[in-house]
Amino acid sequence: MTKERANSVKSPAPFLLNRVSERHTNPTERHRPDMDSAMPALNRPAPDAIDLLLTRRSGSAKTMTGPGPTPAQLETILTAAARVPDHGKLFPWRFIVFEGEARRRMGELLAESLLETEPQAGAERLDMERHRFLRAPVVVAVVSRVREAIPIPEWEQMLSAGAVCQTMLIAAHAMGFVANWLTEWCAFHPGVRDRLGLKSGERIAGFIYIGQPAQPLEERVRPDMAKIVTRF
Fold first, then answer.
1. d(Cα 194, Cα 92) in Å, to the nearest integer?
2. How far apart are CA 206 and CA 221, in angstroms?
3. How far, in Å, CA of 37 to CA of 27, rounded?
4. Does residue 52 lie in a domain region?
5. Residue 147: which domain range?
6. Distance between alpha carbon 111 and the CA centroid of its chain, in Å?
7. Count of domains observed in the chain
8. pLDDT by residue (tens digit) across 157-171?
């Protein structure tokens, strides 16, 4: 099966670690603040969220298939990601969405950028780059945009972008998808950044691949909490 056909598979994989019912496919409306209410409900108790966090597992972009999130589902994922801690209310991040033919155009951009610094790259490597963003139905670039010479430390602004990436993973998994936070060479290549229109102070915090797992997820080694927790 070709990668393009794999991305068009209509039935979701049955072995996700976490699933949600169809009635939750677009929870954005349910969680949008009620503008007629004096105090919108915040931090609603959600005991099941702990189960998700304790079983959360990234799904490799190399083994993803479709379908990906619908436009409404993707809006929910991005809206959740934009609710991260953000000292100063700077919104020091933005999103670039790649779906459909845009993934193929991005692949051509990657091949062009690679040839600038590796003119000896062979046909096999170039073909791999042209298909890199076709591995998942949807890819979202999280762009960190740091503002300098302000009271908010630059480090805190970068951490906020990292929180966006992690929250996007959690939101995608909560909606029954798998996701993978990657950077790879293309996140750091100046030619890629220029072609994507990144400005001064902007860097790619990660590319978030979202889809369905083509293979069962397997647990990975986790830290021994006794070795990483101390009390002052």
1. 19
2. 23
3. 19
4. no
5. 60-213
6. 22
7. 1
8. 999 999 999 999 999
